[in-house]
Amino acid sequence: EPEVTQTPSHQVTQMGQEVILRCVPISNHLYFYWYRQILGQKVEFLVSFYNNEISEKSEIFDDQFSVERPDGSNFTLKIRSTKLEDSAMYFCATVVLAGGHNEQFFGPGTRLTVL
Amino acid sequence: AQKVTQAQTEISVVEKEDVTLDCVYETRDTTYYLFWYKQPPSGELVFLIRRNSFDEQNEISGRYSWNFQKSTSSFNFTITASQVVDSAVYFCALSEDFQKLVFGTGTRLLVSP
After folding, report:
1. Quick check: B100 and A104 CB within 8 A?
2. Pick from B33, B43, B105: CB nearest A42
3. Which residue of A has its CA nearest to B34?
4. Alpha-carbon distance B24 to B70, whole Å?
5. Cα separation of A3 and A6, whole Å?
6. How many CB pairs under 8 A join A and B?
7. Mean pLDDT to the nearest integer, A3-12
8. Distance between CA atoms of A22 and A12, rounded to whole angstroms?
9. Contact B50 A42 (CB under 8 A)
10. Rg (CA), chain A
11. What's the CA gap between A36 and A87, in Å, rounded?
C-alpha cells in the first residue's frame, strides 16, 4: 500500500536556526497538509496546500513558516528561525478524493527538538 | 466553527474489559467526516475509521466498534475485550468536506494485564 513518507524522523536544532521538514506524498494525491503536535497535546492544523498554493492556514502559521513543493514531488515545511516552542511532532498528511470520500493519509511524523 | 470534545482524559482498564471512548462534535455543515486515530507510544497516527455524515450505520471491525449518532452529535468508539496492545492515545477528529482535520484532545487508554 502506498505511504506518505517524512524526513528526517528526528531533527535537533539550535534556537534561531532554519529547518526544513520534508514530506513525500502519495503520487496521485492533490491536497497536502501540515499538522503540529506539541508533546502531550492534541494535533493542530497548520496549513493546507492545493494546486501549488496555500488554501488555508491557522493562526499558528505565522511569517516564520512557509511551505512549497520545490520539485513537484516533495512537500516541505520551512521554519525560518526556530524557537523553543516550535519543539513538536510535525505530521504531513495528504488527501486523495476516492469515490467522493475524503481519504486522509498521515506520514509517520518528524520530531523537532529546538535547544 | 468546528469543535471536537473528548471529555475523558485518561481511562484505565484491566485486560479483557470493554471500554468506550466518547467523542462529541460540533459543526454547521451538513456534509462532514468523522475519524478515529490511534497514537501508540511510538508517535505515529494510525487511521482506524472514517465515517461520513450521511452514513449513520454502526460499524464493527473485529474487537472495535463505532456508534455514530447525529441526534446527539456523538461518534463513540468501543473496544471489546481490551488487550495490553490497545494502550495508546486515541483521537477523534472532524473534517468538513475535504478540509483540514480538527482533532479532539485525545483519550489516553491504559490497559493493564
Report:
1. no
2. B105
3. A102
4. 10
5. 10
6. 54
7. 94
8. 15
9. no
10. 14
11. 9
Cβ neighbours of A32 in B, within 8 Å: none
- Residue B34 burial (CB count, 10 A): 23
- Chain B residues whose C-beta sits inside 8 Å of any chain A C-beta: 33, 35, 37, 43-45, 47, 50, 52, 91, 93, 95, 97-106
CA atoms of B104 and B110, how far apart (whole Å): 18
**What pLDDT digit, counting tens, does each position of A51-88 carry?**
889 999 999 999 999 999 877 788 999 999 999 999 99
Q: Which three cell numbers stand for residue B12?
A: 484505565
Using one digit for the tens of pLDDT, what is the confidence trace for A19-42?
999 999 887 777 899 999 999 999
Number of neighbouring beta carbons within 10 Å of residue A91: 25
